[in-house]
Amino acid sequence: MIVYSVVRNVYLVVKFCCKALLTSISNQYLYVVEPFSNMANTVKDNEVHITYEDQEKINCFARNNAKLTYLKEEIKELIKEKENYVDAADEIMMLEGDDDTVPYMIGDSFFPQTSEKAMEYLERRQTEIGKEMETLENKAVSINKILSDLKEQLYAKFGDNINLENDEEL
């Protein structure tokens, strides 16, 4: 019986304190709570349901975007490599006549080559790099086409609720 009366007294004290607190700030309390309750309703209005096909399109976009980023990095590396070969060819042309042999790097080792043979290697490698770059650029163009089609479809369905732009494009 004593436990019951203690629990009842605690309940009454809590009830009284809460009532006093709510009545003292009731106008402010209702003002603060109203905007949040309206926000919950607006979120439900803007909800877009994602189907399995939509998720597949989003995943396809992400995969192709990653491939495109990788291809762009590869193209940049090939451009740098081609510039290095052009610079090396220029240096060999300036050295012609001084010494017929120049060190030519294959892998991690340098091999002495005649300047004509080294120029042949450099020119051959430049054409190989040009072909590689052309192949990668063609792949990038086809991936860009796929990405633009997917962007069009996804923006048509989701509007501003989806962001498919790269940070570097903005």
From TrEMBL:
CDD domains: Prefoldin_4 (cd23165). Residues 119-153 form a coiled coil. Gene3D superfamilies: 1.10.287.370. GO terms for molecular function: unfolded protein binding. GO terms for biological process: protein folding. Keywords: Chaperone, Coiled coil. The keyword Coiled coil applies. GO terms for cellular component: cytoplasm; prefoldin complex. Belongs to the prefoldin subunit beta family. This is Pfdn4. The lineage of its organism: Eukaryota, Metazoa, Spiralia, Lophotrochozoa, Bryozoa.
